[in-house]
Amino acid sequence: MKVVIIGGVAGGATAAARLRRLDEKAEIVVLERGGYVSYANCGLPYYIGGTIKERAKLLLQTPESFRRRFNVDVRVHNEATEILPAQRMVRVRRLADGSEYTEPYDKLIYAPGAKAIYPPFAAKDARIFTLRTVEDTFAIDDFIAEKAPESALVVGGGFIGIEAAENLVGRGIRVTLVQLEDQVMLPFDYDMACILHAKLREKGVDLRLSSKVTSLKGAAEGVVAEIEGKGSVCADLALLAVGVAPETDLAARAGLSLGIRGAVLVDGHMRTSDPDIYAVGDAVQVKNSVTGRDALVPLAGPANKQGRIAADNIAGKPSLYRGAQASSVLKLFDLTAACTGLTERAARETGYAAESALLFSPDHATYYPGAKNMTLKVVFDRADGKILGAQAVGFGGTDKRIDVLAAAVRAGMTAQDLTELDLCYAPPYSSAKDPVNMAGYVIGNILDGTVRQHTWRDVEKLSADRDALFLDVQTRGEYEAAHLAGAVNIPVDELRGRMGELDKTKTIYVNCYSGLRSYIACRMLSANGFCCSNLAGGIRFYKVVAEGGAYDGVPRLLCGMKNE
Fold first, then answer.
1. Edge-first strand listing for the sheet containing 27-32
2. Of the candidates 397, 406, 404, which has an alpha carbon nearest to the alpha carbon of residue 420?
3. pLDDT value of residue 550
4. What was the pLDDT predicted at 59?
5. Rounded CA separation 99/78 (Å)
6. Which residues of the chain fall short of a pLDDT of 50?
7. What angle do CA 287, 184, 236 make, to 5 degrees?
8. Cα distance between the two ends of the chain
9. Is the CB of residue 484 less than 8 Å from the CB of residue 539?
10. Three-class SS of residue 280?
11. What is the DSSP code (8-state) at residue 452?
12. Which option is the CATH number for 2-114+245-314: 3.40.50.720, 3.30.457.10, 3.50.50.60, 3.30.930.10?
């Protein structure tokens, strides 16, 4: 059997190696248009920043090492130009000299990946870059080394844009980041993204949200971007990071069935509409494993899994891909941001009766030195308590909690299941009640009515309600530092003796710094006949949204010595 693989990065390289492990006699040919195979695509920004110092470290395999270990014929600088399904052949161009040849196959794996979008508003210029391939990375690094730019413009606030901004700052370059939407990192809800906004600004990044670039071109001293209604930005170089598109021109011309944004349609075995052609990676349409809906998930983890599954099926080992939930993690300076499954926004748009629980939890026991808090948001379905997704931003242990919650989402677990998870505990690593367990408890309290909650989005509307009373149960010092306009301050430890100061005819909206003491206060008040609600995430989270976002209502309602 002869298998030809178009594309030699994540999905293609994985498929080649897996196929060889299953079939020692198969003839395997990998056609790669670029000059590198099996490279660490996700590590490219960190080479630009200098964290990864050697170019060779980016290359997991070379054509020579693939040949030695796996007996795979890897041909770099060989571009597949046409798939001929009727003849079961691929037409190939050798980029070195332009000569062409045809390569026959018994089975074909189509794994070209996705291409960086070069938007129509951007001119072609030696100072305007994309970051998708090893060649892109080396070009940017060479430019920085030779030209010593002082400023850079990054267009786009997704994974590549954020990572590029951080690493350019690490090279001592002043960065402006322009984002079309009102937040960076769309896999996160707006409020959680506000933490990232604050960190970017703290590190000196000029963050321009809700800004549409209408023109980007070279200028005498560098590049200039025109922003609709907001003037222009000049810089020494520009990096376009506005997303990727499935690279499926060959598939379309071969008559393969296509789906969302031209992605290749595959079944659960990664087989296309042609039974002899499989497709994997960023070029294929898959199912969202939470909703069951069609989706594009251009991430390395799914691509590697799909490559393995395609190889299994070609080798006669039945294997099924059951979809992706887009679990991902991002380093932003000293922060870690991770997410899995659905955001609260996406869950509601899908039709779930979705709500979220917000926790501000230490990553390990507070009495052990070095504990730092993380913000954890867990999205659930009010109908049955099922966990739909989660997001976390913090320091140590952030990815660990999202990995646990990713497994919970995949397994269809409920809030009650989270409380019963038997997770590792020792003071340097966690608490006896891990933040994941605590999320289950908080959700359980919401579902059974033990506590009512309101969010930062509700505060402005509630402030206009004459039958509402804001109660702040922080210490006096905390209250003076930051509080909601009009809030009455009664520290939680004084509340039992001062309930007579409160009006039982009003609904009392309680807050503290993080949401824990205000929950305790709500229990006290409820037991004494008051109607009350707890501010999810506390004044701390409200303040994060005020300082990290563009929500007009928050700053007007946030008072205190540090905010006036």
1. 73-76, 27-32, 2-6, 107-110, 277-279
2. 404
3. 56
4. 80
5. 10
6. 551-555, 563-564
7. 120
8. 74
9. yes
10. coil
11. -
12. 3.50.50.60
b/e sequence 317-331, b meaning 16+ C-beta within 10 Å: eebebebbbbbbebb
Q: Which contiguous run of DSSP H or E holds residue 358?
A: strand 354-362
Which tokens hold the place of 543? 């303040």
Which H or E run includes 495? Answer: helix 495-498
Helix (H, G, I), strand (E, B) or coil at 531: strand
Q: Taking each helix axis from N to C terminus, what angle separates 190-202 and 159-170, rounded to the nearest 10 degrees?
A: 20
Helix, strand, coil content of the chain in percent (nearest 5): 35, 30, 40
As separate numbers, helices (DSSP H) first and strands (DSSP E) second, the chain gives 18, 33
Instruction: Say how far apart CA 497 and CA 332 lie, in whole Å.
Output: 45
Q: Are strands 328-332 and 335-341 parallel, antiparallel or unpaired?
A: antiparallel
CA gap 90, 83 in Å, rounded: 5
CA distance 227 to 216: 9
Type of residue found at 182: D
pLDDT value at residue 41: 78
Neighbouring-strand partners of residue 471: 488, 510
Q: Locate all alpha helices (DSSP H) within 355-470, ordered by sequence.
A: 398-410, 415-420, 435-447, 459-463
Fold topology of 128-242 = FAD/NAD(P)-binding domain (3.50.50)
**172 Cβ contact list (under 8 Å, min separation 6):** none
Opening angle at CA 240, ends 43 and 129, nearest 5 = 75
Strand partners, 114: 246
DSSP string of 288-322? BTTT--EE----HHHHHHHHHHHHHHHTT------
Distances in whole angstroms, Cα of residue 60 to Cα of each of 8, 9, 481: 11, 10, 51
pTM, rounded to two decimals: 0.94
Closest by alpha carbon to 418, among 430, 431, 401? 401
Q: Are the C-beta atoms of 238 and 225 separated by less than 8 Å?
A: yes
DSSP letters, 46-106, are HHHTTSS--GGGGBS--HHHHHHHH--EEEETEEEEEEETTTTEEEEEETTT--EEEEE-S
3-class secondary structure per residue, 104-144: ECCEEEECCCEEECCCCCECCCCCEEECCCHHHHHHHHHHH
Q: What pLDDT score does 57 carry?
A: 84
What phi and psi, each to the nearest 5 degrees, are found at residue 406? -65, -40
What is the residue extent of each domain of the chain?
2-114+245-314, 128-242, 334-447, 453-559
Q: Does domain 334-447 have CATH number 3.50.50.60?
A: yes
CB 280 within 8 A of CB 19: no
Write the CATH number of the domain with boundaries 453-559.
Answer: 3.40.250.10
Instruction: Write out the catalytic residue numbers.
Output: 42
The one-letter amino acid at 379: V
- What string of DSSP letters covers 189-233? -HHHHHHHHHHHHHTT-EEE-S--EEEEEEETTEEEEEETTS-EE
Give the separation between CA 403 and CA 412, rounded to whole angstroms: 14
